[in-house]
Amino acid sequence: AQSVTQPDIHITVSEGASLELRCNYSYGATPYLFWYVQSPGQGLQLLLKYFSGDTLVQGIKGFEAEFKRSQSSFNLRKPSVHWSDAAEYFCAVTTIIQGAQKLVFGQGTRLTINP
Amino acid sequence: DAEITQSPRHKITETGRQVTLACHQTWNHNNMFWYRQDLGHGLRLIHYSYGVQDTNKGEVSDGYSVSRSNTEDLPLTLESAASSQTSVYFCASSRNVYRETQYFGPGTRLTVL
Questions:
Q1: At A29, is the secondary structure helix, strand, or coil?
Q2: Smallest Cβ distance to A43: which of B42, B94, B106?
Q3: Using an 8 Å Cβ cutoff, are B92 and B4 in contact?
């Protein structure tokens, strides 16, 4: 079955430091991959997505992610975090099962920013 | 601007009561989804719909039902609320089936006492 694993439940970084959030997926075909961000008490906002083409994807708020088929990974990166980046981040993969699109989420990574 | 809204944003109810959570989108999207979010589980799919009169079960559909009488709305009903259904519920929509981003509502926090 298709699955998404985010190995880090909680990450703390200092403001201005670089960030990498890990995401590994299990999917037999070409995956459609997403990163969403959820601020406290809010819904999910799309950061970026990968469907095909260039494996380095740029998103909003200065985030980028790189699709690596050989490693089944889609890690999210930001060169310099801001205090406003503190949130929960979800990686997700779209699967097609019997013609139905389903979005499978990882468990999420909570990001804390130290001043 | 087009959007997706959920109501109520917070709800407290008692075990055994019927509860309906509303979801309304103004994008004219064909597809609508309901998820629940629980610690340690991320988001799990409850029900989804690919158009008017179409509804399908997700991975955690027991105790929930939906109906789709128009494009804009997909209400989620808990027939007899249980404490295990205390959760945060998110509605989402997308335009088409394949390669489409899902857009999420702000969520409803439901507490079942």
A1: coil
A2: B106
A3: yes
DSSP characters for A72-95? TEEEEEESS--GGG-EEEEEEEEE
- Chosen for mutation from A44, A57, A91 (greatest number of chain B CBs closer than 10 Å) is A44
Going by the DSSP 8-state scheme, the letter that residue B53 receives in this structure is: T
**Site from A32, A94, A95 to mutate, B interface, most B CB atoms within 10 angstroms:** A94
* Run means of pLDDT, 10 residues per run, chain B, 113 residues: 88 97 94 91 90 92 96 97 96 81 92 96
Whole-angstrom distance, CA of residue A59 vs CA of residue A76: 10
Cα gap B111→B11, rounded to integer Å: 6
Q: Chain B neighbours among A 69-98 (CB < 8 Å)?
A: 90, 94, 96
Q: Which residue's structure tokens are 């990001």?
A: A111
